[in-house]
Amino acid sequence: MAVTILGIESSCDDTSAAVWQDGNMLANLIANQDVHKRYGGVVPELASRAHQQNIVPVVDQALERAGVTRQELSAVAFTKGPGLMGSLLVGTSFAKALAMGLGVPLIEVNHMEAHVLAHFIEEPRPSFPFLCLTVSGGHTQIIRVDDYLSMELIGETRDDAAGETFDKTGKLLGLPYPSGPVIDKRAAEGNPHAFSFPEPKIPGCSFSFSGLKTSILYFVQEKEQEDPDFINNNMADICASVQYRIISILLSKLKRAAGETGIDHVAIAGGVSANRELRQRFHDTGQERGWHTCIPRFDYCTDNAAMIAMAGYYKYLEGQFTDQSVTPVARYPINR
Questions:
Q1: CA–CA separation, 326 and 108 (whole Å)
Q2: Around Cβ 79, how many Cβ atoms within 10 Å?
Q3: Helix 276-289 to helix 230-261 angle, to the nearest 10 degrees?
Q4: Are both 107 and 209 inside the same structural domain?
């Protein structure tokens, strides 16, 4: 009998549903929330309200596109955390009700572990063990992956995430939200060495981006005092220089982790891994160091339910189910 998993993702501002069946991702739908653009960032209350409006039609459309009925589902997987509590509550409540109504198992999924397992949705797939640099708006981590459900956190940010640094820089420069893709596009036209920003001296495989954010703020304020049109006249070079430093920090720590562990299968995941410059420099670094590199396609980098369904599938095979008492959590360490 076919194993058919419905995945539901609602950790932040994207409502997503996906259907995985016996080795194939049959559907992966995402409803975005444009309402946050006017505020320059995600507003939690507005996000949870939009999830309530989107979740039923998104699930229905995913099942329709997959050609699967609710009665054919083997289990329902959902994001338990980490994320925004209001957003997580919508997805969790819907998943619990659907699983109960259908009489099928309920599977809780860690959002960050799911980003790692997005690599197994389609070829090429990494080999165990491998390191995964997982970079998003809220998280920056290096994870050692020994098996589908065996992961160890070996480095993470002490304060802000890389994705947040992109967005806060974009807001400072007057760019629309989300700013990461905009900075990436503008950086392609600029000189990454036009301006110099510091690289924090953090021991081990940990990250820190708060000091870099402060440095960018002071730099822009000082230059604007000298020339009110400085940003407009130097936008491409600023974007290229900021992006260069963020990526340098990420790859520096990844190289350290690979050296300390001796692991040469290396991957990147998360929303920021859709960044054009990061993908290229990661590929180049892999060639220089003899790594076996792996990057999911763009669809599976940003928040999506396909990765939740993928994680749910491996948990289904191991019988790792949860019950109706489960509640979402804003903070959710990996392998817990």
A1: 8
A2: 30
A3: 30
A4: no
| Cis status of the peptide bond prior to 296, with omega within 30 of 0 | no
**Can you give the pTM of this predicted structure?**
0.95
Does one domain contain both 217 and 309?
Answer: no
Q: What is the CATH number of the domain that holds 186?
A: 3.30.420.40
The Cα 269–Cα 271 span in angstroms is: 7
- Do 58 and 204 lie in a common domain? no
Residues 168, 208: Cα–Cα separation, whole Å: 15
Residue 57 lies in a domain: yes
Distances (CA, A) of 44 to 36, 40, 48, 158, 175: 9, 13, 6, 23, 21
| DSSP classification of residue 23 | T
Return the percent helix, strand and coil in the chain, to nearest 5.
Answer: 50, 20, 30
The residue type found at 52 is Q
Over residues 173-185, the pLDDT tens digits come to 999 988 999 999 9
- DSSP run (H or E) holding 46: helix 44-66
pLDDT digit string (tens) for 131-160? 999 998 889 999 999 999 999 999 999 999
Range of the domain at 157: 124-296
Identify each DSSP E strand in 123-171 by its residue range: 130-135, 140-147, 150-156
150 & 280 share domain: yes
* Cα–Cα dist 289/40, whole Å: 39
Is 167 within the bounds of a domain?
Answer: yes
Residues 326/108, Cβ–Cβ less than 8 Å: yes
Number of independent structural domains in the chain: 2
Do 11 and 87 sit in the same domain of this protein?
yes
* Alpha-carbon gap, residue 219 to 36, rounded angstroms: 27
Q: What is the mean pLDDT of residues 24-47?
A: 84
Contact (Cβ atoms closer than 8 angstroms) between residue 21 and residue 4: yes
Residues 189, 56 share a domain: no
Residues 110 and 183 placed together within one structural domain of the fold? no
Same domain, 130 and 246: yes
Contact by Cβ (8 Å): 77, 109: yes
Helix 180-187 vs helix 230-261: crossing angle, to nearest 10: 100
Q: Report if residue 134 sits inside a domain.
A: yes
Task: Give the CA dihedral 146, 315, 299, 91, nearest 10 degrees.
Answer: -130
